Amino acid sequence: MQATRIIAIRHGETAWNVDTRIQGQLDIPLNETGRWQASRMAQALADNPIHAIYASDLLRARETALALAQATDLPVLDAPGLREREFGIFEGKTFAEIAARWPEESLRWRKRDPGFAPEGGESLLQFRQRVTHTAQALAERHVGELIALVSHGGVMDVLYRAATRQDLQAPRTWALGNAAINRLLWTPQGFTLVGWSDTNHLLDDESLDEATA
Question: What's the whole-model pTM score?
Fold first, then answer.
């Protein structure tokens, strides 16, 4: 069977995660906790036979990927298609600020309206297409190998839904924790779930699980 094994990792914590502030495609660095999480993730995966590390080119993902690169002696390969969803006018705002300033738009966002896009941003349909196309293209390069994809909470959500065949509007019942280790399999038939949200390496961590930041 033609298969690619995938380890999908959300970036470590940032100060904006703590503030529930939408980062989108703004370039926010990891905070101290996030750097610790990245280091622990890298230690946990150091002995895995990873063939390539691909990462969103946003700073918080790249910093997380660099920790894994140091542990595995591999380069980080930029994959802009793994960027977080573009949130347009929502970027830089807290959840509460969005609800107060754009109540109708906030409601459509909260209800996961697939066609809704904040002004200057992406809809869930556009975002899903970008992420799944990128992940599939990268997996196709590495049939029979193990690769790491270091990205964002929204991207992790898209990959989980793709692997479990869940609709974009299905209520989320799965975690999207910072620096959690998620395992998928790709074949020409699509993605399947192997394991999700392994946080054993973060047992001392008190990070937030902000899915959309």
Answer: 0.93
Please state, in angstroms and rounded to a whole number, the distance separating the CA atoms of residues 63 and 69. 10
Can you tell me which residue has the tokens 């209800």?
A: 111
Length of the chain equals: 213
Residue with tokens 């690619």: 4
Structure tokens at 46: 């150091």
Query: Which is the catalytic residue, given 13, 84, 122, 210?
Result: 84
Q: 18: how many CB neighbours lie within 10 A of its CB?
A: 15
Per-residue pLDDT of 172-196, as tens digits, reads 999 999 999 999 999 999 999 999 9
Burial 63-93 (b: 16+ CB within 10 A, else e): bbbbbbbebbeeebeebebbbbbbbbbbbeb
Q: Output the pLDDT for position 213.
A: 45
Is 152 an active-site residue? no
DSSP-derived secondary structure for 111-156: TT-TT---TTB--HHHHHHHHHHHHHHHHHTTTTSEEEEEE-HHHH
Amino acid letter for position 98: I
The angle, 0 to 180 degrees and rounded to 10, between the axes of the packed helices 153-164 and 124-140 is 80
Q: Tell me the domain boundaries of the chain.
A: 4-202
- Please confirm, yes or no, whether 84 is among the known catalytic residues: yes
Among the CATH numbers 3.40.50.150, 3.40.50.300, 3.40.50.1240, 2.40.50.870, which is that of 4-202? 3.40.50.1240
